[in-house]
Write a structure and sequence with these properties.
Number of helices: 7
Shape: elongated
Strand content: 5-15%
Strand order of the largest sheet: 3-2-1-6-4-7-5
Number of strands: 7
Largest sheet: 7 strands, parallel
Oligomer: single chain
Helix content: 25-40%
Order of helices and strands: HHEHEEHEEEHEHH
Structural class: alpha/beta
Length: 225
């Protein structure tokens, strides 16, 4: 699988800020536990990463293995023709909702700042073109679901999302490309009531992923910490 990731050290949670971290835990107190999932450096120095408490002191690789055992069967794709600043936010939200993969369509390089280093725990795949994404989705038997408030779109709020699918989001300014719209099983619009023409792609992605969770997710597990 083609990956596009970034390397960071054990203290990766502080990478997005120059200020000293206030979250997390300090050095382990007492005898060190005998657990191969735990990182000796984190036990010694403390764990200030942006992870939930159950993963405190865990090695990065051990966290990814645990996440891989529980990932949801939906994928998220976002078109990146103009180096969209929303992509980092989309990746962070995909990690929170435990998407199977995030797909970057277009430019390989994307702005990681909004991801808050969550891309280290989220599988990210690159497709040079929308046609490449469509070919991959077809080969994987995954329906493509576009999210955009275009003429002819149907309400996301009443649509029964497939359990296994690819949710695709377009650029902030131009929305979904014609290539994606042509291969999409459906294009869904998010209900809006104000004066703005659209909401940004990061917010739209969060709403759509949460709609999937409401239909298919284990709600109790999602509130279990």
């Amino acid at each position: 699988m083609e990956q596009d990731t970034e390397t960071a050290g054990p203290g990766d949670g502080a990478a997005a800020s120059d200020e000293a971290p206030t979250h997390g835990v300090g050095p382990w107190e007492g005898a060190w536990p005998e657990d191969p999932r735990l990182d000796p450096e984190l036990l010694r120095e403390g764990d200030r990463r942006n992870v939930v408490d159950r993963y405190r002191y865990w090695r990065h690789e051990a966290i990814v293995v645990d996440l891989d055992e529980r990932r949801h069967p939906f994928h998220v794709a976002i078109e990146n023709w103009q180096h969209d600043l929303n992509i980092g936010s989309v990746v962070r939200t995909a990690n929170a909702f435990l998407a199977q993969e995030v797909h970057i369509v277009g430019r390989r390089r994307w702005n990681r700042r909004g991801a808050m280093v969550t891309d280290r725990y989220q599988h990210v795949r690159h497709h040079p073109t929308a046609d490449d994404l469509a070919t991959w989705a077809a080969a994987s038997s995954l329906p493509v679901i576009g999210i955009d408030n275009l003429p002819g779109s149907v309400p996301l709020e009443t649509y029964e999302l497939p359990r296994e699918c690819v949710l695709v989001f377009g650029q902030e300014s131009v929305g979904l490309t014609d290539e994606v719209r042509e291969v999409a099983q459906a294009t869904l619009a998010i209900a809006q009531y104000g004066s703005t023409r659209s909401i940004n792609a990061g917010a739209a992605a969060a709403i759509a992923m949460h709609a999937w969770v409401r239909q298919h997710g284990d709600i109790a597990a999602g509130h279990g910490g």
